[in-house]
């Protein structure tokens, strides 16, 4: 029967055998099973506890007077085998194995010391007291989570058995334990996190905390202070991880193996002061590892290497190799693990044979074993993949065999024949890397045999010049391959080689060959470009017809009504450009753009599930500079990556990797050109889910990018990247689709950053006029009649507040630019209604860093841009909503401040409509006013009354707005101290550093929201006389302004209050709070 794997399986296995135990021999065999268990799961608390408890039960069952029912002869034999000393020694051995498990080692310790004290209580002796005293002292100098309990137990023990030395012993124990408490204090934060994660039953959270803990602990082993203790603590933590949540995690096992291996090297070289006996045996560690993760080729490879380094015999190492090949899990993740293991095995055979003192038997073993291993791998691959398997892309085993044949057997012809066989395989023939390896080998052979005449060319010998003809032959054969991935590189090296080593005739022939090949390659590249252009033609034509900067036209409202909105124009600046506040209608040419994602990216599909960004960068490092990698993984399916290069040329060169092996899988590399759509004119509250629903029938969406709103909150568009061109083409057909019952007309165009044009619209064309200082009684008809003197008026819009009153400004659109200019010349500074009006051509604001929306009396949300072009300045009070102004008078600034809170942690890609749609369901009531501040990563939110604001502050705090991001509430001054998170969507640039203030703000999200004081009758302090008039102190004023996220407002002048005033305030507060439940 195969041995169990994992502490729980071992305990269950032994427990099953315990139930079947009926005689003495079976009990002895169970002890042997326990010994195997603690060896396989070294450091497992469960296994050691079960082992020690079982041995202790055997000791007690064989004692006279036991009711276990053993036959007398077995009792006698048991008393001889299961002695008290052996039982106590086993408890001590178990404790030493688990003592550095900080969180739970006390379970075994408490049981052991309890038994020791029971025995002492039966027979009190001086040696017994000294023994237990020393055990307590040693335990108190070991870091553990229940140190205080251990100290209390020691105190009770001294009080009972050594009262005279109580003070001295306790003082010394406390003094000696300082380092232990300090070391545990450093780790306390991780232990608390593990406890929290365990209580929540969140396995992923436990793994994340444990992984961070292990990384931190590994770094501590390099600390020159307490190196031995730190190393033991690290081993203790690994024992918890590898017998717990990471028992079958390959990465954690490799971390542990590398830690032990590097520590052995450091100790041997004198770089580490860790005692040699503390470092685990490498072979024992690897033996446990291959039982837990038998599919890991790298671990099997290390096992073979460690056995070779330890000097094990060929038979023992061969046994390890057979154990690897006979386990059914080695190819669980494909051929990668198989190749890793066989590479280690072949490397061992080669080194053993090439040793200067190697015996003939070692050479014979390699001569037979290396081809046999190569054949085994071929059969394995064919069995798993059929005829699609073409071998190892890196031909590792073949290179080992070639080296053996070349250097040990001096069989150049056999080695060359192996190169020829490899060149007939398409996988290798298409790789320039293979041909360069072969060429270099031929050159090494040529240099090593320079004193021998090996050239088969008679003409060469006649001229007295030796040339590397075989190396030249490699390039000649390579250039005959029509599908070579990088022929340009081969041609370059070929000519250089001929120029350095060959005769003039061969050099001339080489130049001819390269010239012809270059022509063929050029035609091939033209063909590929033409095919790509043909495939892109319909998309390019559509993209050129429309630009990113088309106006985002909302549904028209009633002219002159407060709900009227101006047409918004979308800006499509590429994220990552500098944030200078240039006019948005000034665009750089396509050549000046810093990034052109649409034409510099490629899709990589069919990637292994364990792939990382680092491996992808290494795979493509020879093809250009990588700006970014968007890697997406889903359980059970191959990973997909969108790789962005610096230039279109580099992206095209990366297509040469299409159909190549990545590990043991063949990947597909396709251009991402014409896979991205510029989408706009969707509802303002639309989020990523909404966009995905719109295009769900078109094809698979890779990603959706929303722009940053830090410097322009009017932006409402996104980029939708599809996995295929067909999906993008299907999505583009939805251009013009009616959304929300025809209220919005969707725009979906192919993204083309190089095709930007000047904006269209009245303002961009210079036909819109901005009129200021108008009488507030002015109507649209008044202005239309006035401006018709200069030409035809297309439209007139007068921004109004929520009460319908004019702001004194207006926007007039003329039919032509010339008419607009004439109107400015005629009407500027004209006296209109006793007001000198200012008339000028309307200009787009350079930036708009805030967005405000209000709720009207009918409950509809309204944008502030209908009120004034610039909106309100931050912190300025909003006019009270119609519903709140019961008496028709506006609320005081202090009233507005009391019902206003600040919400922080809002991503800078989220507009005010989306924020409102998230917050209102949480609060359960309408928001009166919301001012979005993307530059500060938050918003100022005003509610209808103070009680609602209080409840909202509590309800909103901690709400998850995006995955891993939670909102927090606070005061307006706190909001303006924050800075929005800086997003870097590039892997070639360092991540933004987090300041201490930002870290503190993030930590504050875990704290409860600030308390809100309710209005009370009177105030603290000395009792004052009736009708007492007093000023408001600065401290009190500051406190009032900061309540519940209120904006800093100018305090009203101090005034006296009578008892009637206080009574009125009290009654008003009770009315606002409503009946209590």
DSSP strand tally: 28
Helix content: 40-55%
Measured distance between first and last alpha carbons: 67 Å
- Main sheet: strand order: 22-21-24-25-23-28
Domain RRM: 600-674, 675-753, 767-844, 899-974
Subcellular location: Nucleus
Biased composition (Low complexity): 530-546, 843-855, 868-877
GO cellular component, one term: U6 snRNP
Summarize the structure.
With 1077 residues, this protein is an alpha+beta fold. The protein is 49% helix and 11% strand.
Ordered list of secondary-structure elements with their pairings:
Blueprint: H1 7-20, H2 24-40, H3 45-61, H4 72-81, H5 84-98, H6 105-122, H7 126-140, H8 147-161, H9 166-176, H10 178-199, H11 203-220, H12 227-242, H13 250-269, H14 282-292, H15 297-309, H16 314-326, H17 336-354, H18 360-385, H19 396-408, H20 412-423, H21 426-429, H22 432-448, H23 458-462, H24 469-478, H25 487-501, H26 504-545, E1 551-552, E2 568-569, H27 597-600, E3 601-607, H28 613-619, E4 626-634, E5 637-645, H29 648-654, E6 661-662, E7 665-666, E8 668-671, E9 676-680, H30 688-694, E10 701-705, E11 717-722, H31 725-732, E12 738-739, E13 744-745, E14 747-750, E15 768-772, H32 780-787, E16 793-797, E17 810-814, H33 817-827, E18 831-832, E19 835-836, E20 838-841, E21 851-855, E22 861-862, H34 893-898, E23 900-904, H35 912-923, E24 929-933, E25 938-942, H36 946-956, E26 960-962, E27 965-966, E28 968-970, H37 972-977, H38 996-1004, H39 1034-1041, H40 1059-1073
Antiparallel strand pairs: 1-2, 3-5, 3-8, 4-5, 6-7, 9-11, 9-14, 10-11, 12-13, 15-17, 15-20, 16-17, 18-19, 21-22, 21-24, 23-25, 23-28, 24-25, 26-27
Helix pairs in contact: 1-2, 2-3, 3-5, 5-6, 6-7, 7-8, 8-9, 10-11, 11-12, 13-14, 14-15, 15-16, 15-17, 16-17, 17-18, 17-19, 18-19, 19-20, 22-24, 24-25, 25-26
């Amino acid at each position: 029967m195969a041995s169990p794997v994992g502490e729980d399986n071992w305990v269950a296995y032994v427990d099953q055998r315990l139930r079947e135990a009926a005689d003495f021999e079976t009990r002895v065999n169970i002890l042997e099973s326990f010994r195997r268990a603690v060896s396989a799961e070294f450091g497992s608390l469960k296994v050691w506890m079960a082992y020690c408890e079982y041995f202790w039960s055997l000791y007690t069952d064989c004692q006279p007077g036991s009711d276990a029912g053993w036959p007398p002869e077995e009792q006698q034999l048991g008393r001889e085998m299961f002695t008290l000393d052996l039982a106590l020694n086993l408890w001590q051995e178990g404790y030493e194995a688990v003592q550095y498990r900080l969180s739970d080692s006390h379970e075994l310790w408490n049981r052991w010391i309890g038994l020791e004290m029971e025995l002492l209580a039966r027979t009190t002796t001086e040696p017994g007291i000294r023994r237990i005293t020393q055990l307590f002292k040693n335990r108190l100098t070991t870091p553990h989570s229940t140190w205080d309990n251990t100290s209390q137990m020691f105190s009770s023990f001294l009080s009972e058995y050594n009262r005279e030395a109580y003070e001295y012993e306790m003082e010394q124990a406390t003094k000696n334990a300082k380092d232990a408490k300090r070391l545990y204090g450093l780790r306390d934060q991780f232990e608390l996190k593990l406890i929290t994660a365990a209580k929540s039953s969140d396995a992923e959270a436990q793994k994340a905390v444990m992984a961070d803990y292990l990384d931190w602990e590994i770094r501590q082993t390099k600390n020159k202070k307490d190196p031995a203790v730190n190393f033991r603590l690290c081993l203790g933590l690994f024992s918890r991880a590898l017998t717990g949540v990471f028992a079958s995690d390959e990465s954690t096992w490799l971390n542990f193996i590398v830690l032990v291996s590097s520590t052995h090297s450091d100790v041997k070289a004198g770089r580490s002061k860790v005692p040699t006996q503390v470092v685990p045996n490498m072979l024992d560690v690897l033996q446990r590892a291959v039982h837990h993760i038998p599919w890991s080729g790298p671990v099997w490879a290390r096992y073979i290497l460690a056995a070779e380094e330890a000097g094990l015999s060929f038979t023992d190492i061969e046994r390890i190799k057979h154990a690897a090949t006979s386990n059914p899990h080695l190819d669980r993740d494909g051929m990668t693990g198989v190749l890793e293991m066989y590479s280690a095995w072949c490397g061992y055979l080669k080194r053993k044979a090439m040793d200067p003192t190697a015996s003939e038997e070692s050479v014979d073993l390699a001569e037979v074993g290396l081809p046999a291993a190569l054949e085994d791998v071929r059969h394995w691959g064919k069995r798993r993949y059929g005829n699609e398997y073409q071998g190892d892309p890196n031909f590792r085993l073949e290179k080992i065999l070639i080296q053996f044949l070349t250097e040990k057997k001096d069989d150049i012809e056999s080695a060359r024949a192996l190169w020829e066989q490899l060149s007939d395989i398409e996988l290798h023939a298409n790789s320039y890397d293979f041909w360069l390896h072969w060429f270099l080998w031929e050159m090494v052979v040529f240099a090593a045999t320079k004193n021998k005449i090996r050239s088969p060319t008679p003409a060469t010998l006649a001229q007295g010049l030796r040339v590397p003809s075989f190396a030249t032959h490699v390039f000649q054969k390579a250039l005959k391959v029509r599908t070579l991935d990088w022929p340009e590189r081969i041609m370059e090296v070929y000519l250089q080689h001929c120029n350095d080593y060959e005769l003039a005739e061969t050099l001339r022939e080489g130049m001819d060959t390269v010239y012809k090949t270059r022509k063929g390659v050029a035609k091939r590249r033209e063909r590929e470009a033409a095919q790509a252009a043909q495939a892109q033609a319909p998309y390019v034509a559509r993209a050129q017809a429309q630009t990113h900067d088309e106006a985002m036209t909302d549904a028209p409202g009633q002219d002159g009504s407060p709900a009227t909105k101006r047409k918004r124009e979308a800006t499509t600046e590429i994220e990552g450009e500098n944030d200078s506040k240039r006019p948005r209608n000034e665009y750089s040419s396509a050549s000046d753009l810093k990034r052109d994602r649409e034409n510099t990216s490629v899709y990589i599909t069919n990637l292994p599930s364990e792939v990382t960004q680092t491996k992808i960068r290494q795979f493509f490092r020879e093809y250009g500079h990588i700006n970014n990698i968007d890697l997406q993984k889903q359980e059970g399916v191959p990973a997909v990556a969108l790789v962005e290069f610096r230039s279109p040329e580099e992206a095209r060169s990366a297509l040469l990797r299409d159909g190549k092996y990545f590990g043991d899988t063949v990947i597909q590399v396709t251009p991402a050109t014409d896979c991205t759509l510029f989408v706009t004119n969707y509802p303002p509250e639309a989020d990523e889910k909404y966009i995905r629903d719109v295009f769900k029938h078109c094809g698979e969406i890779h990603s959706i990018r929303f722009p940053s709103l830090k410097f322009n909150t009017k932006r409402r568009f996104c980029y939708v990247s599809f996995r295929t061109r067909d999906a993008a083409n299907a999505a583009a057909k939805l251009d013009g689709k009616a959304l929300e019952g025809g209220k919005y007309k969707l725009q979906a165009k192919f993204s083309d950053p190089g095709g930007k044009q000047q904006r269209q619209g009245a303002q961009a064309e210079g036909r819109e006029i901005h009129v200021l200082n108008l009488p507030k009684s002015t109507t649209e008809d008044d202005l239309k009649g006035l401006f018709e003197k200069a030409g035809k008026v297309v439209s007139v819009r007068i921004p109004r507040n929520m009460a319908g009153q004019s702001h004194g400004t207006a926007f007039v659109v003329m039919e032509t630019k010339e008419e607009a200019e004439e109107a400015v010349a005629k009407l500027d500074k004209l006296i209109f209604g006793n007001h000198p009006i200012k008339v000028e051509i309307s200009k787009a604001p350079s930036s708009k860093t805030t967005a405000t929306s209000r709720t009207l009396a009918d409950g509809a949300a309204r944008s502030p841009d209908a009120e004034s072009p610039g909106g309100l300045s931050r912190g300025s009070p909003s006019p009270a909503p119609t519903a709140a102004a019961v008496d028709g008078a506006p609320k005081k600034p202090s009233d507005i401040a009391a019902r206003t809170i600040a919400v922080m942690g809002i991503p800078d890609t989220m507009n005010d409509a989306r924020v409102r749609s998230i917050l209102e369901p949480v609060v359960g009531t309408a928001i009166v006013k919301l001012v979005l501040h993307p530059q500060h990563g938050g918003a100022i939110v005003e509610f209808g009354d103070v009680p609602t604001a209080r409840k909202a502050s509590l309800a909103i705090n901690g709400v998850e707005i995006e995955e891993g991001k939670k909102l927090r509430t606070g005061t307006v001054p706190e909001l303006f101290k924050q800075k929005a998170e800086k997003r870097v969507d590039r892997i070639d640039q360092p991540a933004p550093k987090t300041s201490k203030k930002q870290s503190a703000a993030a930590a504050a999200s875990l704290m409860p929201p600030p308390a809100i004081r309710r209005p009370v009758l009177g105030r603290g302090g000395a009792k004052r006389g009736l009708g007492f008039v007093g000023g408001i102190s600065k401290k009190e004023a500051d406190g009032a302004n900061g309540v519940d996220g209120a904006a800093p407002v100018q305090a009203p002048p101090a005034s006296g209050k009578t008892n009637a005033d206080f009574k009125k305030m009290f009654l008003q507060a009770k009315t606002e709070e409503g009946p209590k439940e």
